[in-house]
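Much of what follows relies on a compact textual record of a protein's fold. Here is one such record, which you should read through line by line:
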Amino acid sequence: MFWPTIIAGLVLVLGGARSAQGQTPPSQAELSAYVGLHKAAAHGSVDEIRALLISRADPNMRDKAGRTPLHVAAFNSHYDAARALVAGGSNINALENDRYDVITIAAVKDDVRMVKLAIELGGNPAAITSRYDGTALIAAAHLGHDTVVQALIEAGAPLDHVNNLGWTALIEAVVLGDGGKRHVATAKALVAAGANKTLADRHGITALQHAQRRHYPAMVAVLE
């Protein structure tokens, strides 16, 4: 009988954790202090990136948050800069301090172009990322980024990975979603791709049961 209260608390805590302690784009102060490849990546300066790489700048150097220049390019949606960095040796699958890679950064940003580019450049759509031991697909489903979800499905992202909260992408689309159009589209894409609707969370509650309890009729219709 306390389940709605528990879920509400989890949503509040998890939402705060992801925004405050999860993905952290470079602050204005950090951007202003950047030099070398980090500065060039932040500005999307492809010619400067190439010149610095020719002069043997480290393509995988880190800032204080563990971000490489490639992470910075992803946060700023600089596609050509990302290409140039990978061509110069940047690790497309590198994780920053909070364990986010380029694909997951782009998934949270709802940047489907960067998601597809990162995969094209060798990014792993099945990588385990974040302090929640999740995936880019789970992160995108949580936020209802349906076009990103579809791109990740097409790239072979694991549909039924369970994170350390005991949730799959489908469960997160319900529990952390708003029942709206994009979260419903997310659930539809996952179900159509073969996501297991019968998987339950640690309390034995399935995605359908969560949708019923939250009074999300459109989501219920997808999951029944």
In short: Residues 128-224 form a domain with the Serine Threonine Protein Phosphatase 5, Tetratricopeptide repeat fold (CATH 1.25.40.20).
